[in-house]
Amino acid sequence: MGLNTLASRKKTGRRHPLASAALLIIGLVAAGGASAAVGTVANAQPAQSSPHAQQLTEQDGAELFRANCASCHGMNAEGTEHGTSLIGVGAASVDFQVMTGRMPMAFQGPQALQREPQFTQEQSDAMGDWIASLAPGPERPAEEWLDTSQVTDEELAEGGALFRINCAMCHNVAGAGGALTEGKFAPHLRDIDAAHIYEAMQTGPQNMPVFNDNNISPEQKRQIIAYLHYLDENPSVGGFDLGALGPVSEGLFIWIFGLGGLVGVAVWLTSRPN
């Protein structure tokens, strides 16, 4: 009987019902770790300032471009099958893409991801000047449109209205960002440099529409920047933001806590003796 008992305890060779789920979880964790490692490696070498950086010229910018960007955009920025033409995009587009670290891209994907810039500001300016020399395009914004220190409360309110009308459908009313189609997304707008906000409106990077001066004037762009900086300093103006996901989290909160509380009160009342 002892041998029969031992034999009955031997494994049958059948897989445990939770084995597949465990393998799936392990695979997802491993894939996420590998993606994070790639991003860390890509961000491991941020740009360092050079003592001679301020002496860079358009020709220096051309050489930097051809050494780092020509494989996708062509030797003369004419574009290739791997990258679009940059003729006519202007210095503003170069500054936005390079100084937010979106270019050069770390890897091909639905859209370029923000990371540490790989070039100094002086190197980016030199490349932008060379790109601007090829054809007219949006220029880097003047400092007067980036200075929000003198924006009045009325102008700040106008900036909030402009943002909700033109930007909130993608970036969320609180600037928290949101998902788009085909794996793309609208990034969050918290703690973003004023120049990059202005340049994004000017150039319409990736999935964003272009808001030129005929659509939104420089004064209005400054008001929008002031509103976004106001959100940086006051991240939850109306109270607990519930993740700033809008009606999704708010509706879930009402269903769980609001209706749940009403049901609890009703049960308590009906359980009381007459």
UniProtKB/TrEMBL annotation:
It is an enzyme of class 7 (translocase). GO terms for molecular function: heme binding; iron ion binding; quinol-cytochrome-c reductase activity. Its main location: membrane. The chain crosses the membrane at residues 252-270. The keyword Protein biosynthesis does not apply. SUPFAM superfamilies: Cytochrome c. It holds the Pfam family Cytochrome_CBB3. Heme c 1 binds at C69, C72, H73. The cytochrome bc1 complex is composed of a cytochrome b (QcrB), the Rieske iron-sulfur protein (QcrA) and a diheme cytochrome c (QcrC) subunit. It is a multi-pass membrane protein. It is found in: Cell membrane. This is Cytochrome bc1 complex cytochrome c subunit. Residues 1-36 form the signal peptide. It comes from Agrococcus carbonis. It comes from the Bacteria. Its EC number is 7.1.1.8. Heme c 2 binds at C167, C170, H171. It catalyses: a quinol + 2 Fe(III)-[cytochrome c](out) = a quinone + 2 Fe(II)-[cytochrome c](out) + 2 H(+)(out). Residues 56-135, 154-232 form the Cytochrome c domain. Binds 2 heme c groups covalently per subunit. Keywords: Cell membrane, Electron transport, Heme, Iron, Membrane, Metal-binding, Repeat, Respiratory chain, Signal, Translocase, Transmembrane, Transmembrane helix, Transport. The lineage of its organism: Bacteria, Bacillati, Actinomycetota, Actinomycetes, Micrococcales. The keyword Heme applies. GO terms for cellular component: plasma membrane.
